[in-house]
Amino acid sequence: MQDFTGSAIQDQPIRRTPHIPPGFDARIRQLVADWGIQKSPELIEELIITVLKMGSDRMGTGDLKLVNRSLKELRYAAKIFAPYRDVRKVVIFGSARTAPDEPVARLAEEFGRQMVAHQFMVITGGGDGIMGAAQRGAGRENSFGLNIRLPFEQRANEIIHGDPKLINFNYFFARKLNFVKETHAFALFPGGFGTMDECFEALTLMQTGKALIIPIVLIDSPNGRYWETWMRFLTDHLLKQGLISEEDFNFIKIAHNVDEAVSEILLFYKNFDSSRWVGSQLVYRIHRPLTSAALANLNERFAGVLREGEIVQSGPLPQERNQPELAHLPRIIFTPHRHEFGRFRQLIDAINLAETT
Asked: Computed over its alpha carbons, how large is the radius of gyration of the chain?
């Protein structure tokens, strides 16, 4: 899982509530210790306190059921993904109504196959059409399915049906959260309301800084115009009316063949590895350090992104000690303005193309 958001997951001290009755704090701490919790016990204690407070908040039974079921879904999904934390993944969206012999379905199948060849796993909604095609290409062992329970039958495709990596959700928001927090790239094929919903969700989260920047590739068959038509709507109506900014288009790339789509995702991770907020600083982990000239060039090109200071290169910050597996990676660190996040994507592209030592 990535450090999902640019605001919620940060290095902040755990805030202990002053409203716990005397003695309860120690009892909760002992309960957590008795269960043998070793990883982040203070967070488990805070979760227990939150649940207990819900019991005294006069919440309705319906609300309690919603929170309970949501937490169970999130916990189970995290458990399924946990063994695959170190494997990059790509989420693939597209219509469940696309026939297997349509050109765009064959494209999705080949895309899934090639992403697996580049050591990615594939995540889909678990349905048929584009999703089933992508998972045929990826294979069962390299696939996750995040299925949604609907009033009408929503059976998973034959590739992922019955696999332990098929997760069934009752709530769309829990399913969406897992799509975003577990992936390293989005690939969207032509689809209906669901595809548009997921596309705009990803764009909104990145545009507002609520999700860290990852590639979004819009894929269609060589002669298809689905995404160009969609892009014309964005340009002619949203951009011209000032409802979005020119920088927002940096998040997306249209591709009309598999090689182009795969290359876009691989280029994003050519040198860039991952990112994390540490207070007001944004940390980019990279595989190879940049030359002094390349770093100076970044400071010149992206001065407008900086709220203060310069773009610097260093080792890990002390606050990153809870991720020792990444300690060996060089860092690009800067303090940016928290707007025009499309420029952050341009900066990552520049880092990937910059000269390294």
From this structure: 22
Q: What is the pLDDT of residues 65-92, one digit of tens each?
A: 999 999 999 999 999 999 999 999 999 9
Rounded Cα–Cα distance for residues 17 and 42 (Å): 12
Determine, yes or no, domain membership for 4: no
Same domain, 225 and 189: yes
Q: What is the pLDDT of residues 279-322, one digit of tens each?
A: 999 999 999 999 999 999 999 999 999 999 999 999 999 999 98
Region 154-159: what's the mean pLDDT?
A: 85
**Cα–Cα distance measured from residue 37 to residue 27, given in angstroms and rounded to the nearest whole number:** 14
- Six-digit token pair at 47? 């979760």
DSSP code of 183?
Answer: -
Name all contacts of 178-181 with Cβ < 8 Å and 24+ positions apart: 178/74, 178/77, 178/81, 178/146, 179/91, 179/123, 179/146, 180/4, 180/205, 180/211, 181/1, 181/2, 181/4
Specify the 3-state DSSP secondary structure of 199.
helix
Q: Which DSSP string do the residues of 37-80 spell out, in sequence order? A: --SSHHHHHHHHHHHHHHHTTT--HHHHHHHHHHHHHHHHHHHH
Q: Nearest Cα to 252, choosing from 294, 208, 289, 219?
A: 219
99 and 77 within one domain: no
Domain range for 239 is 84-268
Angle between helices 193-207 and 172-182 (to 10 degrees): 60
Are 148 and 233 part of one and the same domain?
yes
- Given the DSSP bridges, would you call strands 272-278 and 281-286 parallel, antiparallel or unpaired? antiparallel
